[in-house]
Amino acid sequence: MYVLTVTAEGRTCNSSQSLKVIIRSVPCIPESLVSSTSCSDNVVTMSWVSNEAVSSELYTVQAFSADGLFSDSCSGFGQSCDLTSLMCGVPYTATVIAQDSVCTSAPSQAASIRTVPCVPDHVTANVSCQGNNLSVFWEESAGADFYTAVLEDSNGQFTSCQSMNPTTCTVNRLVCGQTYRVSVTASDGYCDSLPSAITDVHSAPCMPHNIRALIDCQSSMAVLSWQPGTGAMQYTATAKSESGHVLSCGKNKTNCELTGLACGESYNITVLAEGQTCNSTATMSGHLNTGPCAPQNVEVQYSLSIGQLSWDRSVGASMYTAQAATDLGSVLSCSTSDTSCALYNVSCSQTYDISVTAHNNVCRGTAVSASTTLNTEPCPPQNVQTHLNCASDVGTVSWEESLGAVSYVAFLEGRNGHSLSCSTTSSSCSVTGLICGAVYNTQVRAIGEIYNSTDSETILFTSG
To answer: Would you place residue 41 in the very low, low, confident or very high pLDDT band (cuts 50, 70, 90)?
Structure first.
Protein backbone atom coordinates (compact mmCIF):
# COMPACT_ATOMS: atom_id res chain seq x y z
CA MET A 1 0.00 0.00 0.00
CA TYR A 2 1.28 3.42 -0.94
CA VAL A 3 0.38 7.11 0.11
CA LEU A 4 0.54 9.50 -2.86
CA THR A 5 0.97 13.31 -2.56
CA VAL A 6 1.77 15.89 -5.25
CA THR A 7 3.96 18.97 -4.83
CA ALA A 8 4.31 21.71 -7.49
CA GLU A 9 7.87 22.94 -7.92
CA GLY A 10 8.53 26.59 -8.98
CA ARG A 11 11.71 28.38 -9.89
CA THR A 12 12.18 29.54 -6.43
CA CYS A 13 9.56 27.81 -4.31
CA ASN A 14 7.48 24.71 -4.18
CA SER A 15 3.84 24.42 -3.38
CA SER A 16 2.57 22.65 -0.36
CA GLN A 17 1.67 18.97 -0.67
CA SER A 18 -1.65 18.01 -2.10
CA LEU A 19 -4.10 15.92 -0.14
CA LYS A 20 -2.90 12.39 0.50
CA VAL A 21 -4.21 9.65 -1.76
CA ILE A 22 -3.82 5.98 -0.77
CA ILE A 23 -2.87 3.60 -3.61
CA ARG A 24 -2.88 -0.25 -3.30
CA SER A 25 -0.64 -2.43 -5.45
CA VAL A 26 -1.70 -5.81 -6.82
CA PRO A 27 -1.59 -8.47 -4.02
CA CYS A 28 1.57 -10.52 -4.00
CA ILE A 29 1.41 -14.10 -5.15
CA PRO A 30 1.24 -16.45 -2.12
CA GLU A 31 4.26 -18.71 -1.83
CA SER A 32 5.13 -22.20 -0.54
CA LEU A 33 1.68 -23.71 -1.02
CA VAL A 34 1.60 -27.17 0.62
CA SER A 35 -1.10 -29.74 1.46
CA SER A 36 -1.62 -31.91 4.51
CA THR A 37 -4.14 -34.76 4.37
CA SER A 38 -6.08 -35.97 7.41
CA CYS A 39 -6.32 -39.76 6.90
CA SER A 40 -9.26 -40.14 9.27
CA ASP A 41 -11.71 -37.88 7.37
CA ASN A 42 -10.09 -37.09 3.99
CA VAL A 43 -9.89 -33.37 4.86
CA VAL A 44 -6.90 -31.61 3.26
CA THR A 45 -5.43 -28.51 4.91
CA MET A 46 -3.79 -26.11 2.43
CA SER A 47 -1.23 -23.66 3.84
CA TRP A 48 0.95 -20.99 2.28
CA VAL A 49 3.24 -18.04 3.05
CA SER A 50 2.07 -14.41 2.61
CA ASN A 51 4.44 -11.51 1.99
CA GLU A 52 2.08 -9.03 3.61
CA ALA A 53 3.05 -8.02 7.16
CA VAL A 54 -0.53 -7.29 8.09
CA SER A 55 -2.86 -9.00 5.71
CA SER A 56 -6.41 -8.02 4.96
CA GLU A 57 -6.42 -10.03 1.79
CA LEU A 58 -8.75 -12.94 1.11
CA TYR A 59 -7.03 -16.10 -0.01
CA THR A 60 -8.81 -18.69 -2.12
CA VAL A 61 -7.56 -22.20 -2.84
CA GLN A 62 -8.92 -24.07 -5.82
CA ALA A 63 -8.24 -27.75 -6.41
CA PHE A 64 -8.97 -29.71 -9.59
CA SER A 65 -8.62 -33.37 -10.45
CA ALA A 66 -6.40 -34.29 -13.35
CA ASP A 67 -9.37 -35.09 -15.56
CA GLY A 68 -11.21 -31.97 -14.51
CA LEU A 69 -14.26 -33.88 -13.32
CA PHE A 70 -13.85 -33.01 -9.66
CA SER A 71 -13.02 -29.76 -7.89
CA ASP A 72 -13.13 -28.19 -4.47
CA SER A 73 -12.20 -24.82 -2.98
CA CYS A 74 -11.76 -23.06 0.32
CA SER A 75 -11.10 -19.47 1.38
CA GLY A 76 -9.75 -17.62 4.38
CA PHE A 77 -8.00 -14.48 5.57
CA GLY A 78 -5.24 -16.40 7.25
CA GLN A 79 -2.55 -18.57 5.76
CA SER A 80 -4.48 -21.85 5.59
CA CYS A 81 -7.87 -23.34 4.81
CA ASP A 82 -9.46 -26.80 4.61
CA LEU A 83 -10.69 -28.63 1.54
CA THR A 84 -13.54 -30.81 2.85
CA SER A 85 -15.28 -32.15 -0.25
CA LEU A 86 -12.52 -33.98 -2.07
CA MET A 87 -13.24 -37.35 -3.66
CA CYS A 88 -11.44 -40.36 -2.15
CA GLY A 89 -8.63 -41.86 -4.15
CA VAL A 90 -8.44 -38.97 -6.63
CA PRO A 91 -5.24 -36.88 -6.99
CA TYR A 92 -5.75 -33.12 -7.20
CA THR A 93 -3.65 -30.08 -8.16
CA ALA A 94 -4.27 -26.89 -6.16
CA THR A 95 -3.32 -23.20 -6.45
CA VAL A 96 -4.01 -20.24 -4.18
CA ILE A 97 -4.72 -16.61 -5.09
CA ALA A 98 -4.76 -13.45 -2.99
CA GLN A 99 -7.57 -10.89 -3.38
CA ASP A 100 -8.15 -7.43 -2.08
CA SER A 101 -11.10 -5.19 -2.76
CA VAL A 102 -9.77 -4.23 -6.14
CA CYS A 103 -7.31 -6.74 -7.53
CA THR A 104 -6.48 -10.42 -7.56
CA SER A 105 -3.01 -11.87 -7.65
CA ALA A 106 -1.85 -14.40 -10.15
CA PRO A 107 -2.20 -18.07 -9.01
CA SER A 108 0.58 -19.52 -6.93
CA GLN A 109 2.71 -22.40 -7.99
CA ALA A 110 0.59 -25.57 -8.07
CA ALA A 111 0.72 -28.05 -5.20
CA SER A 112 -0.22 -31.76 -5.44
CA ILE A 113 -2.88 -33.23 -3.18
CA ARG A 114 -3.08 -36.92 -2.23
CA THR A 115 -6.48 -37.98 -0.94
CA VAL A 116 -7.31 -41.02 1.19
CA PRO A 117 -7.90 -44.26 -0.82
CA CYS A 118 -11.54 -45.23 -1.22
CA VAL A 119 -13.06 -47.92 1.02
CA PRO A 120 -12.97 -51.34 -0.71
CA ASP A 121 -16.42 -52.42 -1.86
CA HIS A 122 -18.22 -55.74 -2.47
CA VAL A 123 -16.00 -57.73 -0.10
CA THR A 124 -16.55 -61.49 -0.17
CA ALA A 125 -14.68 -64.39 1.41
CA ASN A 126 -14.46 -68.07 0.45
CA VAL A 127 -13.04 -70.91 2.52
CA SER A 128 -11.01 -73.63 0.81
CA CYS A 129 -12.14 -76.68 2.75
CA GLN A 130 -9.22 -78.90 1.82
CA GLY A 131 -6.59 -76.73 3.51
CA ASN A 132 -8.92 -74.57 5.63
CA ASN A 133 -7.58 -71.49 3.83
CA LEU A 134 -9.52 -68.26 3.34
CA SER A 135 -9.47 -66.16 0.16
CA VAL A 136 -10.81 -62.62 0.44
CA PHE A 137 -12.03 -60.74 -2.65
CA TRP A 138 -13.00 -57.12 -3.26
CA GLU A 139 -13.34 -54.52 -5.98
CA GLU A 140 -10.30 -52.39 -6.71
CA SER A 141 -10.27 -49.10 -4.79
CA ALA A 142 -9.24 -45.78 -6.34
CA GLY A 143 -5.99 -44.46 -4.91
CA ALA A 144 -4.86 -47.73 -3.33
CA ASP A 145 -1.39 -49.20 -3.72
CA PHE A 146 -1.98 -52.22 -1.50
CA TYR A 147 -4.69 -53.77 0.67
CA THR A 148 -4.97 -55.36 4.10
CA ALA A 149 -7.66 -57.92 4.95
CA VAL A 150 -8.26 -58.22 8.71
CA LEU A 151 -9.92 -61.31 10.22
CA GLU A 152 -11.27 -61.36 13.77
CA ASP A 153 -12.18 -64.83 15.07
CA SER A 154 -14.76 -65.87 17.66
CA ASN A 155 -12.20 -65.46 20.44
CA GLY A 156 -11.25 -61.91 19.49
CA GLN A 157 -7.94 -62.93 17.94
CA PHE A 158 -6.83 -61.12 14.79
CA THR A 159 -5.21 -62.42 11.62
CA SER A 160 -4.44 -60.44 8.49
CA CYS A 161 -3.01 -60.63 5.01
CA GLN A 162 -1.58 -57.86 2.82
CA SER A 163 -1.63 -57.90 -0.93
CA MET A 164 -0.41 -55.83 -3.84
CA ASN A 165 -3.02 -57.68 -5.87
CA PRO A 166 -5.84 -55.18 -6.41
CA THR A 167 -8.65 -57.65 -5.74
CA THR A 168 -7.65 -60.57 -3.47
CA CYS A 169 -5.44 -62.03 -0.75
CA THR A 170 -5.33 -65.36 1.11
CA VAL A 171 -4.97 -66.37 4.76
CA ASN A 172 -3.67 -69.92 5.23
CA ARG A 173 -4.41 -72.44 7.98
CA LEU A 174 -7.42 -70.94 9.66
CA VAL A 175 -8.26 -72.07 13.17
CA CYS A 176 -11.00 -74.69 12.97
CA GLY A 177 -14.50 -74.06 14.29
CA GLN A 178 -14.32 -70.25 14.13
CA THR A 179 -16.58 -67.54 12.75
CA TYR A 180 -14.39 -64.86 11.19
CA ARG A 181 -15.43 -61.21 10.75
CA VAL A 182 -13.63 -60.03 7.63
CA SER A 183 -12.96 -56.43 6.56
CA VAL A 184 -10.56 -54.87 4.06
CA THR A 185 -8.72 -51.53 4.12
CA ALA A 186 -6.98 -49.86 1.19
CA SER A 187 -3.67 -47.99 1.59
CA ASP A 188 -1.42 -45.79 -0.50
CA GLY A 189 1.49 -45.90 1.92
CA TYR A 190 0.44 -42.64 3.57
CA CYS A 191 -3.17 -43.16 4.50
CA ASP A 192 -5.45 -46.13 5.09
CA SER A 193 -9.07 -46.09 4.10
CA LEU A 194 -11.80 -46.83 6.57
CA PRO A 195 -12.51 -50.57 6.87
CA SER A 196 -14.99 -52.07 4.46
CA ALA A 197 -18.33 -53.44 5.52
CA ILE A 198 -17.82 -56.62 7.58
CA THR A 199 -18.64 -60.01 6.10
CA ASP A 200 -18.81 -63.19 8.20
CA VAL A 201 -17.33 -66.50 7.13
CA HIS A 202 -17.03 -69.86 8.89
CA SER A 203 -13.90 -71.99 8.93
CA ALA A 204 -14.07 -75.78 8.77
CA PRO A 205 -15.39 -77.40 11.96
CA CYS A 206 -12.90 -79.02 14.28
CA MET A 207 -12.66 -82.79 14.03
CA PRO A 208 -14.58 -84.91 16.52
CA HIS A 209 -12.32 -86.74 18.96
CA ASN A 210 -12.31 -89.59 21.45
CA ILE A 211 -14.44 -91.78 19.17
CA ARG A 212 -15.62 -94.94 20.88
CA ALA A 213 -17.70 -97.97 19.89
CA LEU A 214 -19.58 -100.32 22.21
CA ILE A 215 -21.02 -103.43 20.57
CA ASP A 216 -24.17 -105.31 21.61
CA CYS A 217 -23.53 -108.90 20.59
CA GLN A 218 -27.14 -109.99 20.96
CA SER A 219 -28.62 -107.44 18.55
CA SER A 220 -25.67 -106.96 16.14
CA MET A 221 -25.74 -103.28 17.01
CA ALA A 222 -23.03 -100.87 18.15
CA VAL A 223 -23.36 -97.57 20.00
CA LEU A 224 -20.88 -94.96 18.73
CA SER A 225 -19.99 -91.88 20.76
CA TRP A 226 -17.51 -89.02 20.40
CA GLN A 227 -16.55 -85.64 21.76
CA PRO A 228 -17.92 -82.76 19.64
CA GLY A 229 -15.89 -80.70 17.21
CA THR A 230 -16.21 -76.92 17.60
CA GLY A 231 -18.23 -75.42 14.78
CA ALA A 232 -19.99 -78.65 13.78
CA MET A 233 -23.73 -78.47 13.11
CA GLN A 234 -24.34 -82.20 12.76
CA TYR A 235 -22.48 -85.49 12.45
CA THR A 236 -22.54 -88.62 10.30
CA ALA A 237 -20.78 -91.75 11.53
CA THR A 238 -19.83 -94.34 8.91
CA ALA A 239 -18.66 -97.92 9.36
CA LYS A 240 -16.98 -99.66 6.41
CA SER A 241 -15.79 -103.24 6.60
CA GLU A 242 -12.88 -104.80 4.75
CA SER A 243 -15.40 -106.62 2.57
CA GLY A 244 -17.07 -103.33 1.58
CA HIS A 245 -20.12 -103.48 3.84
CA VAL A 246 -21.13 -99.89 4.73
CA LEU A 247 -23.42 -98.58 7.48
CA SER A 248 -24.03 -95.05 8.74
CA CYS A 249 -25.94 -93.21 11.44
CA GLY A 250 -26.14 -89.84 13.19
CA LYS A 251 -27.43 -86.30 12.83
CA ASN A 252 -27.20 -83.58 15.49
CA LYS A 253 -26.08 -85.65 18.49
CA THR A 254 -22.66 -86.89 19.58
CA ASN A 255 -23.75 -90.53 19.61
CA CYS A 256 -25.73 -92.87 17.38
CA GLU A 257 -26.59 -96.53 16.92
CA LEU A 258 -25.21 -98.60 14.07
CA THR A 259 -27.66 -101.41 13.34
CA GLY A 260 -27.32 -104.34 10.99
CA LEU A 261 -23.65 -105.05 11.61
CA ALA A 262 -22.45 -108.10 9.71
CA CYS A 263 -20.93 -110.96 11.66
CA GLY A 264 -17.23 -111.68 11.49
CA GLU A 265 -16.31 -108.24 10.17
CA SER A 266 -13.77 -105.59 11.10
CA TYR A 267 -15.15 -102.10 10.53
CA ASN A 268 -13.26 -98.86 10.09
CA ILE A 269 -15.19 -96.07 11.86
CA THR A 270 -15.17 -92.44 10.71
CA VAL A 271 -17.19 -89.49 11.99
CA LEU A 272 -17.94 -86.60 9.63
CA ALA A 273 -18.52 -83.20 11.25
CA GLU A 274 -20.61 -80.97 9.00
CA GLY A 275 -20.12 -77.20 9.30
CA GLN A 276 -21.80 -74.28 7.55
CA THR A 277 -19.25 -74.19 4.74
CA CYS A 278 -16.95 -77.20 5.18
CA ASN A 279 -16.77 -80.65 6.72
CA SER A 280 -14.07 -82.44 8.67
CA THR A 281 -13.55 -86.16 9.27
CA ALA A 282 -12.02 -88.08 12.16
CA THR A 283 -11.18 -91.78 12.26
CA MET A 284 -11.52 -94.00 15.31
CA SER A 285 -8.28 -95.58 16.46
CA GLY A 286 -8.41 -99.33 15.97
CA HIS A 287 -11.39 -101.11 14.47
CA LEU A 288 -14.87 -102.21 15.45
CA ASN A 289 -14.76 -106.00 15.38
CA THR A 290 -18.08 -107.83 15.42
CA GLY A 291 -18.95 -111.24 16.81
CA PRO A 292 -18.36 -114.39 14.76
CA CYS A 293 -20.88 -115.83 12.36
CA ALA A 294 -22.91 -118.83 13.48
CA PRO A 295 -21.45 -122.21 12.44
CA GLN A 296 -23.09 -123.83 9.43
CA ASN A 297 -23.60 -127.41 8.26
CA VAL A 298 -23.26 -129.11 11.64
CA GLU A 299 -22.96 -132.87 11.14
CA VAL A 300 -22.90 -135.81 13.59
CA GLN A 301 -21.10 -139.07 13.06
CA TYR A 302 -22.23 -141.42 15.80
CA SER A 303 -20.95 -144.67 17.16
CA LEU A 304 -21.97 -146.17 20.47
CA SER A 305 -21.51 -143.57 23.26
CA ILE A 306 -19.41 -141.27 21.07
CA GLY A 307 -20.69 -138.44 18.91
CA GLN A 308 -18.17 -136.99 16.46
CA LEU A 309 -19.27 -133.46 15.45
CA SER A 310 -18.03 -131.38 12.53
CA TRP A 311 -19.04 -128.04 10.96
CA ASP A 312 -17.90 -125.36 8.54
CA ARG A 313 -15.47 -122.75 9.81
CA SER A 314 -17.21 -119.53 10.88
CA VAL A 315 -15.94 -116.11 9.81
CA GLY A 316 -14.48 -114.27 12.77
CA ALA A 317 -14.48 -117.26 15.15
CA SER A 318 -11.51 -118.17 17.30
CA MET A 319 -13.15 -120.86 19.43
CA TYR A 320 -16.16 -123.19 19.28
CA THR A 321 -18.29 -124.90 21.90
CA ALA A 322 -20.51 -127.84 20.92
CA GLN A 323 -23.34 -128.83 23.22
CA ALA A 324 -25.75 -131.75 23.26
CA ALA A 325 -28.75 -131.54 25.60
CA THR A 326 -31.61 -133.92 26.33
CA ASP A 327 -35.14 -133.02 27.33
CA LEU A 328 -34.33 -134.17 30.86
CA GLY A 329 -31.52 -131.64 31.18
CA SER A 330 -28.56 -133.87 30.66
CA VAL A 331 -25.82 -131.88 28.87
CA LEU A 332 -22.61 -132.94 27.14
CA SER A 333 -20.14 -130.46 25.62
CA CYS A 334 -16.77 -130.11 24.00
CA SER A 335 -14.66 -127.09 22.99
CA THR A 336 -12.09 -126.58 20.27
CA SER A 337 -10.45 -124.00 18.05
CA ASP A 338 -10.85 -126.43 15.15
CA THR A 339 -13.99 -127.38 13.27
CA SER A 340 -14.65 -130.72 14.93
CA CYS A 341 -14.78 -132.27 18.38
CA ALA A 342 -16.09 -135.42 20.06
CA LEU A 343 -18.83 -135.88 22.64
CA TYR A 344 -18.12 -138.80 24.96
CA ASN A 345 -20.37 -140.80 27.27
CA VAL A 346 -23.40 -140.28 25.11
CA SER A 347 -26.34 -142.09 26.71
CA CYS A 348 -28.50 -144.70 25.04
CA SER A 349 -32.22 -144.22 24.38
CA GLN A 350 -31.85 -140.42 24.31
CA THR A 351 -32.74 -137.66 21.89
CA TYR A 352 -30.03 -134.98 21.93
CA ASP A 353 -30.49 -131.45 20.62
CA ILE A 354 -27.03 -130.50 19.30
CA SER A 355 -25.77 -126.99 18.52
CA VAL A 356 -22.38 -125.37 18.01
CA THR A 357 -21.57 -121.87 19.27
CA ALA A 358 -18.76 -119.74 17.83
CA HIS A 359 -16.80 -117.29 20.01
CA ASN A 360 -14.17 -114.61 19.62
CA ASN A 361 -12.64 -112.00 21.93
CA VAL A 362 -15.59 -109.66 21.27
CA CYS A 363 -18.66 -111.85 21.62
CA ARG A 364 -19.26 -115.16 23.34
CA GLY A 365 -22.34 -117.34 23.33
CA THR A 366 -24.37 -115.46 20.73
CA ALA A 367 -23.40 -117.07 17.41
CA VAL A 368 -25.31 -120.34 17.70
CA SER A 369 -25.79 -122.76 14.84
CA ALA A 370 -29.08 -124.27 13.81
CA SER A 371 -29.75 -127.29 15.99
CA THR A 372 -29.51 -130.85 14.76
CA THR A 373 -31.00 -133.92 16.45
CA LEU A 374 -29.20 -137.11 17.43
CA ASN A 375 -31.34 -140.13 18.36
CA THR A 376 -29.01 -142.58 20.05
CA GLU A 377 -29.37 -146.36 20.04
CA PRO A 378 -31.88 -147.99 22.37
CA CYS A 379 -30.46 -149.17 25.64
CA PRO A 380 -29.82 -152.93 25.91
CA PRO A 381 -32.97 -154.75 27.06
CA GLN A 382 -33.08 -155.35 30.77
CA ASN A 383 -34.43 -158.16 32.96
CA VAL A 384 -34.10 -160.82 30.27
CA GLN A 385 -35.84 -164.06 31.26
CA THR A 386 -36.36 -167.48 29.63
CA HIS A 387 -39.12 -170.05 29.93
CA LEU A 388 -39.36 -173.59 28.54
CA ASN A 389 -42.66 -175.24 27.67
CA CYS A 390 -41.73 -178.87 28.17
CA ALA A 391 -44.86 -180.22 26.52
CA SER A 392 -44.29 -178.38 23.26
CA ASP A 393 -40.50 -177.98 23.54
CA VAL A 394 -40.94 -174.25 22.86
CA GLY A 395 -38.62 -171.75 24.50
CA THR A 396 -39.82 -168.22 25.30
CA VAL A 397 -37.51 -165.25 25.93
CA SER A 398 -38.92 -162.04 27.54
CA TRP A 399 -37.47 -158.67 28.62
CA GLU A 400 -38.33 -155.12 29.55
CA GLU A 401 -38.88 -152.79 26.61
CA SER A 402 -36.14 -150.29 25.72
CA LEU A 403 -37.02 -146.67 24.95
CA GLY A 404 -36.57 -145.95 21.29
CA ALA A 405 -36.60 -149.55 20.13
CA VAL A 406 -38.73 -150.43 17.10
CA SER A 407 -38.10 -154.22 17.36
CA TYR A 408 -36.02 -156.81 19.15
CA VAL A 409 -33.97 -159.89 18.25
CA ALA A 410 -33.22 -162.66 20.74
CA PHE A 411 -30.15 -164.82 20.12
CA LEU A 412 -29.64 -168.30 21.60
CA GLU A 413 -26.14 -169.68 21.13
CA GLY A 414 -25.80 -173.34 22.10
CA ARG A 415 -22.54 -174.51 23.56
CA ASN A 416 -22.60 -177.26 20.99
CA GLY A 417 -22.69 -174.66 18.24
CA HIS A 418 -26.40 -174.84 17.65
CA SER A 419 -27.92 -171.36 17.28
CA LEU A 420 -31.45 -170.07 17.24
CA SER A 421 -33.03 -166.60 17.11
CA CYS A 422 -36.38 -164.92 17.08
CA SER A 423 -37.50 -161.34 16.44
CA THR A 424 -40.49 -159.32 17.51
CA THR A 425 -41.85 -155.84 18.07
CA SER A 426 -43.10 -156.77 21.52
CA SER A 427 -41.22 -157.68 24.67
CA SER A 428 -41.02 -161.47 24.12
CA CYS A 429 -40.57 -164.04 21.41
CA SER A 430 -40.48 -167.82 21.15
CA VAL A 431 -38.13 -170.31 19.50
CA THR A 432 -38.62 -173.91 18.48
CA GLY A 433 -36.21 -176.61 17.47
CA LEU A 434 -34.31 -176.66 20.73
CA ILE A 435 -31.98 -179.61 21.19
CA CYS A 436 -32.82 -181.45 24.33
CA GLY A 437 -30.43 -181.11 27.18
CA ALA A 438 -28.56 -178.23 25.46
CA VAL A 439 -27.47 -175.08 27.28
CA TYR A 440 -27.94 -171.83 25.35
CA ASN A 441 -26.33 -168.43 25.98
CA THR A 442 -29.29 -166.09 25.51
CA GLN A 443 -29.01 -162.35 24.66
CA VAL A 444 -31.50 -159.76 23.39
CA ARG A 445 -30.70 -156.84 21.09
CA ALA A 446 -32.95 -153.77 20.71
CA ILE A 447 -33.29 -152.52 17.13
CA GLY A 448 -33.56 -148.71 16.73
CA GLU A 449 -34.57 -146.57 13.78
CA ILE A 450 -30.94 -145.83 13.00
CA TYR A 451 -28.74 -147.45 15.58
CA ASN A 452 -29.07 -150.77 17.42
CA SER A 453 -28.31 -151.41 21.05
CA THR A 454 -25.54 -153.54 22.36
CA ASP A 455 -26.63 -157.00 23.44
CA SER A 456 -28.19 -157.52 26.81
CA GLU A 457 -26.53 -159.43 29.58
CA THR A 458 -26.20 -163.15 28.80
CA ILE A 459 -28.76 -165.47 30.35
CA LEU A 460 -28.29 -169.27 30.39
CA PHE A 461 -31.21 -171.23 28.99
CA THR A 462 -31.31 -175.03 29.35
CA SER A 463 -33.64 -177.02 27.11
CA GLY A 464 -35.58 -180.06 28.37
So the answer is: very high
Distances (CA, A) of 113 to 42, 95, 105, 186, 376: 11, 11, 22, 18, 115
Rounded alpha-carbon distances, angstroms, from residue 321 to 110, 158, 259: 105, 65, 27
Indicate the pLDDT class of residue 464, thresholds 50, 70 and 90: low
Number of Cα atoms under 13 Å in the Cβ half of residue 218: 0
Q: Among 255, 287, 319, give the residue marking a domain's end.
A: 287
pLDDT single digits (tens) 168-195: 999 999 999 999 999 999 999 999 999 9
Examine the domain organization and report whether 188 and 217 are in the same domain. no
Long-range contacts of 153-159 (CB under 8 A, 24+ apart): 153/178, 153/179, 153/180, 154/178, 154/179
- In this prediction, residue 53 has a pLDDT band, given cuts at 50, 70 and 90, of low
Point out the domain boundary residue: 93, 113, 133: 113
11 domain residue, yes or no: no
Domain membership of residue 269 as a residue range: 209-287
Beta-carbon contacts of residue 429 (< 8 Å; ≥ 6 apart): 396, 397, 408, 410, 422, 423
- Helix (DSSP H) and strand (DSSP E) numbers for the chain: 0, 39
Instruction: Please indicate, yes or no, whether residues 403 and 458 belong to a single structural domain of this protein.
Output: yes
Note whether 365 and 408 are same-domain residues: no
Where residue 76 sits, what CATH number does that domain have? 2.60.40.10
C-alpha dist (Å) from residue 180 to 148, 200, 204, 231, 302: 15, 6, 11, 12, 77
Range name among 36-45, 210-219, 383-392, 396-405 with the lowest pLDDT average: 383-392
Longest dimension (CA), the chain: 220
The answer to whether position 9 is within a domain reads: no
Q: How many domains does the chain have?
A: 5
